[in-house]
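Example 9 (inverse folding). The structure is encoded as follows.
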């Protein structure tokens, strides 16, 4: 399908991350992860509430009235303008993370790429002020498609854009049927990350070891083993290790609940997440950690409604008049997909979110701590300087692949 692209004449503004923006993303991460995990049954989970926050952050720029207030409350933001500026600051910081690195004396690379786009119905006059905000704060261009007569080619074009920007890790974000003749615009965020560990695990040390699932059964999993120097933090019923990636600006925190405490700890992410994102003095940790690969897809209408933004999805109450256009709009669906693969060398993760809007009606060293991750655990991939969580998930069975 041939698409045309229009962009505002306003250039993207330089911005710096703020603690308020990172705190808002952290709080939303805890809220949304809890909802997604509750609906995932006994499956592994990976998601990026950060990606969802950016997609909704673009969408709320066109919301008005109660719709805007509900969305901002869910996003833990005071107003749409400060939210846009704050997310722009985080994105600007993340854009500085990619770099060439050396791991064990060999050249390697840290990659982190985010992109935003707005796909709109051709022939509709969208509000110029809105296009300026999306260009200035989100770097999002406007691509025109014809949902009214060619909804399937439009869906394929959006999916192709997402696949390209996630290095094919999210090849089909939007399922057939979700884009139809009632769709008028789709706001999309894509996020891709790949980095080597600061100190990689030696493959020869990886070996099978029993992993204890929640139901008490056991499965043999391939556990990587190493004595690492890493941040360590513990709380009521859990302990965590903070594993740095090369370059020291990105990390993964692995949060291991005590036996019998997984459900309690998972539900209390709002308590432990800010703690693991903080600065922690490195300690020696004898770590055993599974390799794993996970993929999770989710439709977020019900989770976001439960979190407190029902008006955005309601024919009678949705108010997105800030977008302009010639018809009333509501959010028809919010789809999200996450992917993660962790091995001895490092981590690759990807996520994408689409908001589809439709027509509405000094001393001697102590012995190392030992952390054997042989039971279900949680993890967070996060930016260290801004303390912003990028991906969050759980592993109930590392032998179940994507």
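The amino acid assigned to each position is listed next.
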């Amino acid at each position: 399908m041939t698409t045309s692209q229009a962009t505002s004449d306003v250039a993207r503004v330089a911005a710096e991350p703020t603690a308020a923006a990172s705190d808002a993303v952290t709080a939303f991460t805890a809220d949304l992860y809890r909802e997604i995990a509750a609906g995932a049954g006994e499956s592994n989970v990976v998601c990026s509430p950060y990606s969802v926050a950016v997609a909704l952050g673009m969408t709320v720029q066109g919301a008005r009235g109660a719709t805007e207030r509900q969305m901002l409350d869910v996003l833990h933001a005071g107003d749409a303008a400060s939210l846009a500026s704050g997310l722009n600051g985080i994105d600007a910081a993340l854009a500085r993370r990619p770099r060439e690195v050396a791991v064990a004396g060999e050249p390697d690379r840290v990659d982190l790429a985010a992109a935003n786009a707005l796909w709109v119905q051709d022939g509709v006059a969208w509000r110029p002020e809105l296009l300026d905000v999306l260009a200035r704060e989100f770097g999002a261009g406007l691509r025109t498609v014809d949902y009214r007569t060619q909804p399937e080619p439009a869906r394929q074009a959006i999916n192709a854009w997402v696949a390209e920007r996630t290095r094919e890790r999210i090849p089909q974000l939007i399922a057939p049927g979700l884009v139809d003749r009632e769709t008028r615009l789709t706001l999309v965020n894509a996020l891709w990350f790949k980095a080597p560990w600061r100190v990689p695990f030696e493959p020869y040390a990886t070996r099978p070891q029993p992993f204890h699932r929640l139901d008490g059964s056991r499965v043999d999993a391939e556990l990587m083993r190493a004595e690492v120097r890493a941040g360590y933090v513990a709380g009521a019923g859990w302990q965590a290790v903070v594993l740095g990636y090369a370059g020291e600006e990105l990390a993964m925190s692995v949060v291991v609940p005590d036996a019998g405490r997984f459900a309690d700890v998972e539900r209390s992410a709002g308590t432990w997440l800010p703690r693991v994102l903080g600065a922690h003095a490195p300690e020696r940790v004898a770590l055993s950690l599974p390799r794993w690969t996970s993929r999770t897809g989710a439709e977020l209408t019900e989770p976001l409604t439960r979190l407190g933004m029902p008006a955005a999805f309601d024919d009678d109450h949705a108010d997105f008049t800030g977008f302009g256009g010639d018809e009333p709009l509501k959010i028809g669906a919010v789809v999200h997909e996450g992917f993660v693969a962790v091995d001895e060398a490092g981590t690759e993760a990807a996520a994408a979110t689409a908001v589809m809007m439709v027509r509405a009606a000094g001393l001697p060293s102590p012995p190392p701590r030992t952390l054997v991750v042989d039971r279900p655990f949680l993890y967070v991939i996060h930016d260290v300087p801004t303390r912003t969580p990028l991906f969050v998930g759980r592993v109930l069975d590392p032998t179940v692949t994507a």
